[in-house]
Design goal:
The chain is an alpha+beta fold. It has one domain: Gcn5-related N-acetyltransferase (GNAT) (Aminopeptidase), CATH 3.40.630.30. The chain has helices at about 20-30, 45-55, 105-120, 135-145, and strands spanning about 5, 10-15, 65-70, 75-85, 90-100, 125-130, 150-160, 165-175. An eight-stranded mixed beta sheet has the order 1-2-3-4-5-6-8-7, sandwiched between helices. β3 and β4 (about 75-85) form a beta hairpin. The longest helix has 16 residues, at about 105-120. The radius of gyration is 15 Å and the shape is globular.
């Protein structure tokens, strides 16, 4: 299974590749950008490359990461992914991260609907989940803006740096009609 290139008015989402490590390290190596991820920030570009390699080793049937790049110039500014895909139950989870210089510019408000359309329409997904830490106001706002509904708190759902963390479970069900660019918030 090969993932496509997805396009929006300002962005191109293409499969992440190992050579993206230096650009991806702008987010993965930033403790503030990684504050709400399930792993600590990467120590260096080599560790970021390792994380990308591990991601690529998982088949696209179960997980895929897309580099979010600017259509004008091709600069990589973030990443979106789907993971924890369960084919039988037609569900998966999504995640996103943006390098700090690109915060508050609507990057994920534009990129994530393209990923959701792909997951619903091309992968046949019925339920898309997002697991978001309670203090992550930006991601909570994005999820709610995109039509995700909060379903409940998953207490001590993960450990990061040896410490338990709880997350809100958000979900969006397959819409009755196809998603369009108008579904951006």
């Amino acid at each position: 299974m090969t993932n496509p290139v997805l396009e929006t008015p300002r962005l191109r989402l293409r499969p992440l590749v190992e050579s993206d490590a230096a650009a991806m390290h702008e987010a993965y190596g930033d403790p503030e950008a990684m504050r709400f991820w399930d792993v600590p920030a990467s120590r260096d570009v080599a560790e970021t490359a390792d994380r990308i390699r591990q991601s690529l080793d998982v088949g696209a049937q179960w997980h895929a990461a897309f580099a979010v790049t600017l259509r004008d110039g091709g600069r990589m500014v973030g990443m979106v992914n789907y993971h924890a895909r369960n084919l039988h139950n037609r569900r998966l989870a999504v995640g996103w991260i943006v390098a700090r210089p690109w915060w508050r510019q609507g990057i994920m408000r534009e990129a994530t609907p393209a990923l959701l359309r792909y997951c619903f329409d091309d992968l046949g997904t019925h339920r898309i989940e997002a697991r978001i830490e309670p203090d992550n106001a930006a991601s909570i706002g994005l999820a709610e803006c995109l039509g995700f509904e909060r379903e409940g708190l998953m207490r001590d759902w993960m450990f990061v740096g040896g410490q338990p963390r709880s997350v809100w479970l958000y979900a969006r069900l397959r819409p009755g009609a196809a998603l369009t660019d108008d579904d951006r918030c």
